[in-house]
Amino acid sequence: NVAAVGRERVPLWGRDAAHIAALAQERENARFLPGLRLAEAVAPTDSLSAVHAAEIVLCAAPAQAVRSVVKAASPHLRAGTAFVICAKGIEQGTRAFMSEVVAEEAPQVEVAVLSGPSFAADVCKGLPTAVTVAANSEARAQWLAEQLSSRSFRLYRSQDVRGVEIGGAVKNVLAIACGMASGRGLGASAGAALIARGFAELTRLGAAWGARTETLMGLSGLGDLVLTCGSNQSRNFALGEALGRGEALSEARHGKLAEGSFTASALMEIARERSVEMPISQSVAEILAGRIDVEAAIEALLMRPLRAEG
Ligand SMILES: NC(=O)C1=CN([C@@H]2O[C@H](COP(=O)(O)OP(=O)(O)OC[C@H]3O[C@@H](n4cnc5c(N)ncnc54)[C@H](O)[C@@H]3O)[C@@H](O)[C@H]2O)C=CC1
Ligand SMILES: O=C(CO)COP(=O)(O)O
């Protein structure tokens, strides 16, 4: 809907023809965003060829599906199209960041990343939100910020593509840990400690990839971490909370997408490769893999050797 502000027609592609037809008819997505109407200009379509005419394409598929979607869209994408990744995650198996996936599958486009604290429902209701858009060139990032900003949806520009995608991927894993602490009833102080120590992990990983401190401390890093770790409106937090209450992983998802649960293992692999210590994220990955339970993970974190802060 934000992309529709000031535009006459914005195609919205989805893979499920029946769902797209229902969306076009009802002008509401009752499952994901109940009660929120699609903007007039949004034109649902099940034809990927719609991307051909676009100057800007926003890709909001789940991270593990981005490669297949981009591969299918690639023949229709023109050279120089601004391809804006909205997914937050790292690809399992290849351990690739989303910008790498897009560069491999559609080398003709100009990749950008949009990320930051923004629950879809808040954005759709027109509540004030601010996020970061990163592109390799300053001019491209500025142009995208101008094209996509509205009064309530403010875009800050950046050239730190990797820093922005690291923040989005890591905060989801950390939100699962914060949810677990909440589900276990560990209290608000423990939640704050997890956010601060989690941010130290995010910063260490970012530094290993040359991310800028301003990026990690900005909207797409600390900003999104605070949002996602502090509200069970977050699906990652809600998954952790359910696990913390003792639900099995198979039930705890409640049919919702929790990106951190798919990114955790790949995150641990890239952290290990670059010798980055990430004990909280590691605990989440091990719990999700069924190697330890929540109680054992808490015990292990509390018994870690005392060290200097940093
Ligand atoms: N919902 C939110 O508040 C925000 C979500 N994001 C990110 O956007 C990405 C997508 O999240 P949501 O839209 O919330 O998820 P969602 O679960 O609400 O919707 C995902 C959509 O992708 C479709 N899909 C799933 N697999 C697909 C495939 N293989 N090919 C094509 N389509 C496929 C589903 O049918 C569904 O329509 C995630 O990476 C998430 O982290 C980013 C910012 C905010
Ligand atoms: O990324 C988000 C908000 O910025 C959405 O968080 P969840 O995917 O955990 O719901």
Structural descriptors:
NAD binding; Glycerol-3-phosphate dehydrogenase [NAD(P)+]; five-stranded mixed sheet; 310 residues; binds 1,3-dihydroxyacetonephosphate; 48% helix; N-(1-d-carboxylethyl)-l-norvaline Dehydrogenase, domain 2; globular; binds 1,4-dihydronicotinamide adenine dinucleotide; 2 domains; two-stranded parallel ribbon
Strand and helix layout:
Blueprint: E1 10-13, H1 17-26, E2 42-45, E3 56-59, H2 66-73, E4 82-85, H3 98-105, E5 110-115, H4 120-125, E6 129-135, H5 138-148, E7 153-158, H6 161-183, H7 188-208, H8 213-216, H9 219-229, H10 235-244, H11 249-252, H12 259-273, H13 279-288, H14 294-302
Parallel strand pairs: 1-2, 3-4, 4-5, 6-7
Antiparallel strand pairs: 5-6
1,3-dihydroxyacetonephosphate (13P) is lined by residues 88, 117-119, 172, 175, 224, 227-228, 234-236, 259.
